[in-house]
Design a protein that fits this description.
The protein is an alpha/beta fold. Helix content is 40%, strand content 17%. It is built from 10 helices and 9 strands.
Length: 255
């Protein structure tokens, strides 16, 4: 079996294929230092959102220097908050919190039941043209919604709930791989894994988390998991999954 690639191009930047989720990141000196240390350890993509920790996640990342190579954030999470005016206001606030003039990757956090998808993406396309965001993503979507979005603006990444036990978006994973779109599974470790995970971890001298991440990396060449943690030890452990090779027979245990 060919070696699984350990890096991927996200937007214009090559990053490690293990990122960092920050939905619990509060703005404290210790957490600013944690982000700095995680980047120094090899984390190239840090994922956040306008709503995470009431905005403190973005503020913490913005206070870290040097900044992560790629920061992805999101807006339009709650129903009624993804209209063009709301998204533009959220982007401006995220720019201030992140202390940047341009956000590398900006997702529509959810498809708004009160706003046509094309209107939301049109607002993001306008912000992209203005230079406020560089690349556009979309979250928790199906294949048809991805293609509707791509008719409005290029889509660099799709972020959906996906892991060993949550596989309802198998078709989206495969579609993104065919189209060269980065697929970012959130909650990549939120499953018990079962005996197969524990047995493989023992066989390889790895942790169960590393086995779960290695399965995701082998599942698709455009996969970029973002396990969330506030621990530098765990971030380093997660990065260690990049060195774990599972054989075809081992992967078959999870088919």
């Amino acid at each position: 079996m060919p070696r699984v690639k350990t890096t991927i191009t996200l937007g214009d930047t090559e990053v490690a294929r293990i990122g960092l989720g920050t939905n619990r990141l509060r703005h404290t000196p210790d957490n600013v230092e944690f982000v700095q240390q995680a980047v120094a350890a090899g984390i190239g993509y840090v994922d956040t959102a306008h709503t995470y920790a009431d905005g403190e996640s973005e503020a913490t990342i913005g206070a870290a220097s040097p900044a992560p190579p790629v920061v992805g954030t999101k807006g339009g999470y709650a129903p009624g908050t993804a209209g063009p005016e709301q998204l533009r206001a959220q982007i401006d606030e995220s720019l201030r919190r992140l202390r940047t003039d341009s956000i590398e990757l900006y997702y529509l956090h959810r498809v708004d039941p009160e706003t046509p998808l094309e209107e939301s993406l049109g607002a993001l396309a306008g912000c992209r043209e203005a230079g406020k965001i560089r690349h556009v993503g979309i979250s928790q979507v199906d294949v048809e919604q991805i293609e509707r979005a791509r008719a409005v603006v290029p889509i660099a990444a799709v972020q959906n709930h996906y892991n060993l036990s949550e596989r309802r978006y198998e078709d989206v994973v495969d579609h993104c791989a065919r189209e060269g779109i980065v697929f970012v599974p959130y909650f990549p470790l939120r499953d018990d894994g079962g005996r197969a995970v524990d047995e493989l971890a023992a066989r390889h001298g790895a942790s169960p988390a590393q086995v779960k991440l290695a399965w995701l990396l082998a599942r698709s060449p455009t996969m970029l998991p973002i396990p969330g943690t506030l621990s530098l030890e765990h971030a380093r452990e997660n990065l260690g999954a990049l060195e774990l090779e599972l054989g075809d027979d081992e992967l078959a245990a999870f088919a």
